[in-house]
Design goal:
single chain; alpha/beta; 5-stranded mixed β-sheet
Length: 204
């Protein structure tokens, strides 16, 4: 973490961390979360959600919801992803998460290298922020657990695609099931593997 960012985090300002989950998968919404942590109620073990087991993520997500000063989770739908593209849909989900916070942050720190337009506070991007800034780590955990819960709901509706196993990512299993059954309503039509599966179904 650079000195400038470290100084900002120690300034006592209300800082919201923001991260997303679900940009890469072939199906379902993309999620984003925003979190303002309470310095008087620290949470041990916060880090990039991808470095945690599912059990640990669920445990920390519950702590974050109980102990953070403010938090919110938002999403952009499969239809919005296909309409405006996955990057813009991710920015939209992040903006929605910031707007849904019950407290107004003085600064917003976004994981990655882009800042959504139209945010309600000054913002900056932090590359690898989910492993450097605890508020972003917390946001990554909330976004990931929300996205995983959505995948389990998709599995209940469309069990033939095994969303409970691959969480929508383009694994060998998912690709095989996509070819076998064709896309379901939750598959992102703007993603090339889904488009190929649609074309294959249409020509068979």
């Amino acid at each position: 973490m650079n000195a400038d960012l470290s100084q900002l985090l120690q300034s006592g300002s209300l800082v919201a961390g923001v991260d997303e989950a679900g940009r890469g998968p072939l199906a379902g919404p993309v999620f984003a979360a925003a979190v303002i942590l309470d310095p008087n109620r620290p949470i041990d073990g916060l880090t990039d959600s991808k470095k945690l087991t599912a059990k640990k993520r669920d445990y920390l997500a519950e702590l974050i919801r109980e102990q953070a000063l403010a938090w919110s989770i938002s999403s952009a739908s499969r239809e919005e992803i296909d309409e405006i593209n996955i990057l813009q849909a991710t920015m939209l989900a992040m903006r929605r998460a910031c707007e849904a916070l019950p407290a107004q942050p003085e600064l917003i720190l976004i994981d990655g290298n882009r800042v959504p337009e139209g945010l309600n506070a000054p913002a900056r991007a932090v590359i690898k922020g989910d492993s450097q800034v605890q508020a972003i780590s917390a946001a990554s955990i909330l976004a990931k657990t929300a996205r995983d819960a959505a995948c389990l709901q998709m599995h209940e509706r469309y069990p033939q695609y095994a969303f409970d196993q691959h969480k929508g990512y383009g694994t060998a299993l998912h690709s095989e099931l996509l070819r076998e059954h064709g896309p379901c309503p939750e598959h992102r039509r703007s993603f090339a593997p889904v488009q190929r599966a649609l074309n294959d179904k249409a020509s068979s």
